[in-house]
Amino acid sequence: AWISILLLLLLPGPSDGGKLLVVPMVGSHWLSMQEVVEKLSERGHEVVVVVPEVSWQMEMTPAYKVVTFPVRQTLEELDNSFQEYVATHLAGKPFPLNAMAMYKSSVDVFNTFFGQCRDMFRSQETLKFLNESGFDAILTDPAFMCGTILAHHLSLPFVFFMRGFPCDLHFAAPQSPSPLSYIPRLFTFNSDRMTFLQRVENALISLLELQYCNGFYGEALKLSSEVLQRDMSLVDLVNSAAVWLLRFDFVFEYVRPVMPNMVFVGGINCAEKKPLPK
After folding, report:
1. Is 278 within the bounds of a domain?
2. Quick check: keyword Nuclease in the entry (predicted)?
3. pTM for the model
């Protein structure tokens, strides 16, 4: 039944409109998701986007309904956190100092922005509205896990619209193989043509992936256990996604099998250009 609802929401063609809750990620991630949300609204679906009152790099249009919730962070705090994150990535430190610094800055920026998710669950007025609205499904960018936790809280089917997780979770959770012999792990900076020692390094880092991802998403796991009243692992949170809309192109990635509910939509955020003059 859930798959039927999601097909009605996502596939082209005439259909009775569904009611879709959108939980986006702030910043540049919203730019590509916004186009999808507008198209869904044009096709007759009732779309509600829930965003923080202090939103970072997010412009809204009248094509859909926007629900805001109060947050504690200021725009200056969000700006400073992201600027520190970018500065760390541009520092040019050698391995493994670069990996350690980037991991720490990633955790810091995640915790800063994730505070807005905590504020959403503190807002009883917002939760009351979401519970009583009768949504059919949730469309979310799971980078900060907020929409994922909300989907479990509301017991709704959910669709991911994403680029990827930092620890290969977007392939591990749906059980798609990622052979260590030619698929380099994040922070190794290797190519698909690795020496023996690089493959050993790749294998060692893969053993640590879930551990550093648990650290990265520590606040999200803590909030999920508070909200859902049970312990949830990262895999538990994401593996029940009905559809994975992946914002990259299969031909530009490392070759591997994928699951039937993984759909590649690379280029969806590229603007349509006018034809060249003759």
Report:
1. no
2. no
3. 0.86
